[in-house]
Amino acid sequence: MAETKREIERKYESDDSGLPDLTGVAGVASVLDQGVAELDATYYDTSDLRLAAASITLRRRTGGSDAGWHLKLPVAAGIRDEIRAPLSDAVPDELAGLVRSRVREGQLVPVVRLRSERDVRLLLDAEGRLLAEASVDAVRADRLFGGEGSAQWTEIEVELADGGDPALLDKLDKGLRKAGVRPSKSASKLARALAETAPRKKRAKAKAAAEGGGAKPVAEGKDDAEGKGKGKGKGKGKGKGKGKGDAKSKGRAEGQPAVEAAAAGREAPDREPVTAGDHVLAYVRAQRDAILALDPAVRQETEDAVHDMRVATRRLRSTFRSFRKVLDRSVTDPIGVELKWLAGELGVGRDQEVLAERLAEGLDDLPHTLVSGPMGERLQTWAKAQHRGSRRRLLGVLDSGRYLTLLDTLDAFVADPPLRTAAEGKPAKVLAKAVRKDLGKVSDLVEQALEEPPGHERDEGLHEARKKAKRTRYAAETATPAIGGPAKALAKSMKSLQSLLGEHQDSVMARQALRELSAVAHAAGESAFTYGLLYGREERRAELVEKELPTAWDRIRGAAEV
């Protein structure tokens, strides 16, 4: 069974071979020598280094106190989550699953072997508590695939103790710099190894990219040998180099230097958006990247990961629909169908989870004297059964060919976006027009729903208005970098409307669930009184939203100008 550890560390270089004396720095009272450990790690990646390009490392390591398989997923600068699994000959299935959204149908192969002599020191406070671990690593890297030769270097690594205050690393950083130690140019040992053992021509191109030479971005997708034509981007026609997709038909072989640069933490800086197409594509890329980054978190059941991935999926689909004057809908519509499918699959478990929490909270709010029958136990059983079923289904979706093909399609889209003529237009004009069009649809739907008498038709109308409010919010988010304050204010207004209408829709769904649960309880000979009581309360909550909506809508509409 894999375990996860949060790793917060900093890496340094020095012209000297040892660790400076840190006694007295940042509350360090003593430094305890732990001796030298011999570490031997083999790093795995695809042949085109997709994991390295995403700052992900997967290794099999022997030696030291934590021998085994280690998968490191980036969280923020200097912070990674390390998922550990016991030693085995092959990559553990659990870790392979966590990188499937990157690897897809490709194969994981050994790419680098790192052997290190690690001189370890424990930094302790006055009470003998561990503050951090510092080590001096003498490293030898040997390229096993896609490169040549070896590299050697010495680095200093400082890792915060579990539960420690990250501010401690800032204090230690000052002490190290005063002693002549400088931050490492590479984000990880693997990044440095890949950069220094790349073929000479690729190293030259990677260096040029790092210095602003403009190496081409690499689309993720299948191995060249297995997925020819996918994610390659032709780079022709529309766009004239302004966000059109720089990966040419020669594919990943041309873009490999950019992978090396990314692996070394030296990606070429992105150009500032200029055209309307630039802004839309920047938003599209951000959502595609969010889906890929959230995939492992969803598999691990990290809190809110399913919700966040669903939101990214919806944002992407909404962007395709809102900016049809910018992106060719003959390409985006089929992708939108697949995004709708994915959002629906992500929503099965998420909607059930939110609904179960709402019903449980409603039951907890009732006086004990008004709770009849085993309603609490029945709610828990229902919620657990729903979660187990949706969990199995979602994991099947994330491992499915349909999902992996969608990721390939998104990569190909980003590499070679189908821009229309309006993509070359001024952002403030093109984007504002699209946002105003979406806002008009929201306005029509809200007003039509309010004209309906209370009941199913009004409920459906308000639900449609909520969905369009989300779409308008996402369009305004896309336009905010170009338009500024007005678009930002509109996004905030639409979020407010979305929340209000979301409360109404949650009440509709809760009442439907209560009807179904009460029927089951009644059939089992249990009292349905409490179900009816909660139903009435949910009905009242919806009535209050409908009563508040006209005034709230007038306020929101007055502030919604772009």
Question: What is the gist of this entry?
Answer:
By secondary structure, the protein is α+β, with helices and mostly antiparallel strands.
Overview of this protein structure:
The chain is α+β, with helices and mostly antiparallel strands and 562 residues long. It is 53% helix and 16% strand. It contains 16 helices and 9 strands. The protein has helices spanning 50-53, 93-98, 100-103, 167-178, 189-196, 200-210, 252-263, 276-299, 305-322, 329-365, 375-398, 401-415, 427-451, 456-483, 485-523, 529-559; strands at residues 3-13, 30-45, 57-62, 68-76, 79-85, 109-124, 130-143, 150-160, 182-183. It has an 8-stranded antiparallel β-barrel. The longest helix has 39 residues, at 485-523. The radius of gyration is 27 Å and the shape is globular. The chain starts with a strand and ends with a helix. The model is unreliable at 210-269 (pLDDT under 50).
